[in-house]
Write a structure and sequence with these properties.
Rna Polymerase Sigma Factor, Chain: A; Arc Repressor Mutant, subunit A; 7 helices; about 60% helix; mainly alpha; single chain; about 190 residues; disordered N terminus
């Protein structure tokens, strides 16, 4: 028999009517597992997330997943507690990852000032001059990939040039542009 757990531990005089493994059942008795392990799982989630409400949601999701997979539980592979904590760990990781993906809201007074960058006309002229010095094939590859945002495969389908050749052209074209722009900077100084 299992003592029913309260927030502070076992509730005196109350005994659960089921064990986590029901007799004659191949699956898991989720209700009894919750009674026996729910508070431990909640403690684990609160410790990991530092947010009780979110931790309670994680425990609920853990038992929902356990209920859905109750027939796949195998006592020969591990205890109910171990199985539930494995599920809980994955749920907590999912919640943690979801929280890190969410952008944080910043009060307006703490928001960074928008930076308006005005392109230097000489830089634009230098880039145009550098592009003009490239061969037509190299220029077309750079413009398609870096200015139009097409993938190498899309450019290949459009032009009939193999992807590897396009990659080589873009590599050499960018190297030539970089050299041209670096030469311009040294002559301007």
């Amino acid at each position: 028999m299992i003592a029913v757990m309260g927030r502070a531990g076992p509730v005196p005089g109350r005994v659960a009517d089921r064990s986590p493994m029901s007799e004659g059942s191949s699956g898991l008795d989720v209700r009894a597992a919750f009674v026996e392990h729910g508070s431990s799982l909640l403690g684990f989630a609160v410790n990991a997330l530092r947010d009780r409400a979110l931790a309670e949601d994680c425990v609920q999701e853990t038992f929902v997943r356990a209920w859905r997979a109750r027939d796949s539980f195998d006592a020969d592979r591990g205890s109910v507690r171990t199985w539930l904590f494995a599920i809980e760990r994955r749920v907590v990781l999912d919640v943690y990852r979801a929280r890190t993906r969410m952008p944080s809201v910043v009060p307006l007074e703490h928001a960074p000032d928008p930076v308006a960058t005005v392109a230097d006309p000489l830089e634009r002229l230098g880039m145009a001059e550098g592009l003009a010095r490239l061969s037509d094939d190299h220029r077309a590859a750079v413009v398609a990939v870096h200015l139009e945002g097409l993938s190498y495969r899309e450019v290949s389908e459009r032009t009939g040039v193999p992807v590897a050749t396009l990659r080589t052209r873009v590599f050499h074209a960018l190297r030539a542009l970089r050299t041209h722009l670096d030469d311009q900077e040294t002559t301007d100084d």
